[in-house]
Structure formats: C-alpha cells, structure tokens
C-alpha cells in the first residue's frame, strides 16, 4: 500500500531548503560547483565558533552524557538570566528561562503549546518562514502583516492592527530581521508592545541576531517591556556565536506570567516530552554569553561582516533595475528587481535561472511569504574575493536577461 504524507503538511512550505535547493544538490552531484548564498550558516564561510566555546565543549563532553532538566542546565539558564538582567530586564527567575535545540525547536514548542485549530498568529511579511510553517503545522492560521520597504522595512503598525481579529492569539516580531536586515527603534518596539497590550496578544520576539548590528545601531529587546502581556523572547548560539551546527538556543518569559499559568503548564509539559536539549551544547552557553564578545569586532566598519555587507549592498545597488535597502543588522540582503526591465517571469524564475546559468543559489522572495514576486534574499557571508565574483555573476545574469 502506498504511504501518504499527513494532510497537515498540505500547503506548507520551507523554500530555504525547497525545490531550488534540491536542484542545487542535483547539480552538485553532477560535479558543478555551486556558490550557496541561500542560508545563514556562518561556519561554512570560515566564521568559526569562538575557541573558548569549542574548548569548553571538548573539555566537558564526558560530563554531558546524561539527560538534564527539560528546561535546561542550571548554569546555562542562569547565564541567560544574567544576559537579560544586564540589559535592565526585571522580575526574571530561573523558571522563566528555557533552553532548546536551537531557536527552531523553541518556535515549534511555543506554538504547539499555544494554538487551537484556526487560531491566528500575526507574522511579518517577509518573514523567516519557519514561523509560518509551524503555525500551519500546529493547526493555526498565519496572518501576514506588512513590513514596508519604503520605510526601511519597518513593520506597519496600522497594517498589524487592521489584521487583528477575535481569533488572533499572538504577534511575532523578528528583530533584527531576517530577511530584510531591519533593526527596529525603541519607539517601534514600544508601539508594538502597546498594540499587543491593547489587544491582549502574546508577543513572540525572535532576537537571534541581536548582536549582529552595523553602523552603530542599537538593539532594543522586547524582553521585560510589559507587565500586562506575556512576552517570549528568543536568542541563540547559531548566529552571534557562529555555532549553527551545535543547535543551541534559549527563550525567556517576561511580563504577565500570572495570566499564563495554563500556557506555561503546557510549555513545561511539551518541553518534558522531548526530555532535554543537547547537553554538551548547553555547556557552551555560559561560556558564550560571558566576557569578551568577538562578534563585536566582526560588525565594526573595519570588521569582516560589515565590509562584506557594504560591498554586497553597493554592488547590488549598482545594477541597473535592482535596488536594495542597506541592512542595519543580521546577515542578509533582500533586493528588489524591476520585473519590467528583465525577461524573468517572477522571483522563482530568476532564482532558478541564476542557479542553472551562473551556479549561484539564492532564495526567491516568495519563499519568505512575501506577496510581491520581484525580490530575492542573498547572504553576504563569503569572503570579499568570493563575494565579489558571485555579485559580478549576478550583475552579468541581470544584464543577460535585460529586455
Ligand atoms: N529565527 C531566525 C530569524 C532565523 O534566521 C533562524 C535561522 O536562520 C532561526 C530562527 C533558527 O535558528 P537556530 O539555528 O537557532 O534554530
């Protein structure tokens, strides 16, 4: 008998590893060398995990053989608690901190514990698509609100408010943003919190890029900004500490915990069903969060990440018919191309042709639940030399397809 996938998977997608990615693997298997600018995986481009974290993990591996508390190792949770206390967040206790196998797992657990069939969650468009996928998997409905390219990809508060219904349970923000690179001002965060308070929404703040900031921009965490609503703030090792393969992330609950007793019970239950997160990675969290933060050097104007970001932004904006908002944070650019100037039908066509003709892999804007069909996302992680070659090929590709 044939075996069918669950109907829960119908209409769900995750294009960062979708059909174009599959095609890239097939080309690689045929012997082609593909430049992969499709995924924010720093270590693959020589951004190594700080030595002290690797050292700690090696030294402690023998002590990490058993299960630990479902919410995480005490030392790791305490380090996370201090991280937020140092930013001025009050009223946090060790019970409010949870460690997961990356933010991905946390996204899955927090939404599964929350949603009933048809409950709505407000998610940015464009988004980091896992949020949308998991809402669907959990039986809920993702409702996308606009982040406006014309205003540096800031979220439109009016659009968010216009989409709130009696079924809306939660609001998600991604700050710094993937894929746009936007970093929200304190005022914007305050406005979002006020809106969530007005409509009694749970606020999820995905802040996994909170230390990857350019040009002196500051990050304002949503953690601790309200006592009226529950705020769940997430961070992790994958990007700030270039340790995506270690699968380590954390989340912190602040605000109206007394109104969320049932939800927190549900969270604790779900966390317990998967026993615990990677113990050896949790050992690295305390080391990562304390002391010298090497990421700060990489984002200085003279640092490797900032130089690559500037190069990529300038080179993309130099292509006639292409424009790109300069990112303030994270690892990505989300350029727009003028469909009327090229023979591409849409972003998917552009992305597939770029792969086939130039052997460069990027992701189309629709993969980020963006309704316009004229954007793509590119990561600027390769060294300047490799990035220059790749961007020149992208420029050539646009020229080859110019009408
Ligand atoms: N959230 C955002 C905004 C991301 O960009 C990513 C990864 O790219 C994740 C979460 C997942 O991160 P992790 O490696 O911690 O699962």
TrEMBL record:
Its cofactor is pyridoxal 5'-phosphate. InterPro entries: Ala_Aminotransferase, Aminotransferase_I/II_large, PyrdxlP-dep_Trfase, PyrdxlP-dep_Trfase_major, PyrdxlP-dep_Trfase_small. Its EC number is 2.6.1.2. It holds the Pfam family Aminotran_1_2. One of its GO terms (molecular function) is transaminase activity. The keyword Lipoprotein does not apply. It comes from the Bacteria. SUPFAM superfamilies: PLP-dependent transferases (SSF53383). Keywords: Aminotransferase, Pyridoxal phosphate, Transferase. Gene3D superfamilies: Aspartate Aminotransferase, domain 1, Type I PLP-dependent aspartate aminotransferase-like (Major domain). Residues 33-394 form the Aminotransferase class I/classII large domain. Belongs to the class-I pyridoxal-phosphate-dependent aminotransferase family. This is alanine transaminase. It comes from Aquirufa echingensis.
């Amino acid at each position: 008998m044939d075996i069918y996938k669950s109907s829960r998977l119908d209409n769900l997608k995750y294009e960062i590893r979708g059909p174009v990615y599959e095609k890239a693997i097939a080309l690689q298997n045929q012997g082609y060398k593909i430049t992969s600018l499709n995924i924010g995986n720093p270590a693959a481009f020589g951004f190594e995990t700080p030595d002290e974290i690797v050292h700690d993990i090696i030294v402690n591996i023998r002590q990490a053989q058993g299960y630990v508390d479902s919410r995480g190792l005490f030392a790791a949770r305490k380090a996370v608690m201090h991280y937020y206390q140092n930013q001025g967040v009050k009223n946090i206790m060790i019970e409010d901190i949870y460690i997961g196998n990356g933010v991905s797992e946390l996204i899955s657990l927090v939404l599964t514990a929350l949603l009933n069939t048809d409950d709505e969650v407000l998610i940015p468009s464009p988004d980091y698509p896992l949020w949308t996928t998991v809402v669907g998997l959990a039986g809920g409905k993702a409702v996308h609100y606009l982040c406006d390219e014309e205003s540096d990809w800031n979220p439109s508060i009016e659009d968010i408010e216009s989409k709130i219904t009696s079924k809306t349970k939660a609001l998600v923000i991604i700050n710094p943003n993937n894929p746009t690179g936007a970093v929200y001002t304190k005022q914007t965060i305050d406005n979002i919190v006020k809106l969530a308070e007005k409509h009694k929404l749970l606020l999820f703040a995905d802040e996994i890029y909170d230390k990857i900031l350019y040009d002196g921009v500051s990050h304002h965490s949503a953690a601790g900004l309200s006592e009226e609503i529950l705020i769940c703030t997430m961070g992790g090792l994958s990007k700030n500490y270039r340790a995506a393969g270690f699968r380590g992330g954390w989340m912190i609950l602040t605000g109206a915990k007394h109104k969320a007793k049932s939800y927190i019970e549900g969270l604790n239950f779900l966390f317990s069903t998967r026993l615990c997160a990677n113990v050896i990675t949790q050992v690295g969290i305390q080391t990562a969060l304390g002391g010298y933060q090497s990421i700060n050097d990489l984002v200085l104007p003279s640092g490797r990440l900032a130089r690559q970001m500037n190069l990529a932004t300038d080179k993309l904006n130099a292509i006639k018919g292409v424009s790109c908002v300069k990112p303030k944070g994270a690892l990505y650019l989300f350029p727009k191309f003028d469909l009327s100037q090229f023979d591409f039908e849409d972003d998917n066509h552009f992305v597939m042709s770029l792969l086939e003709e130039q052997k460069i892999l990027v992701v189309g804007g629709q993969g980020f639940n963006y309704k316009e069909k004229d954007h793509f996302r590119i990561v600027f992680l390769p060294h300047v030399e490799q990035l220059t070659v790749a961007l020149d090929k992208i420029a050539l590709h646009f020229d080859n397809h110019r009408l």
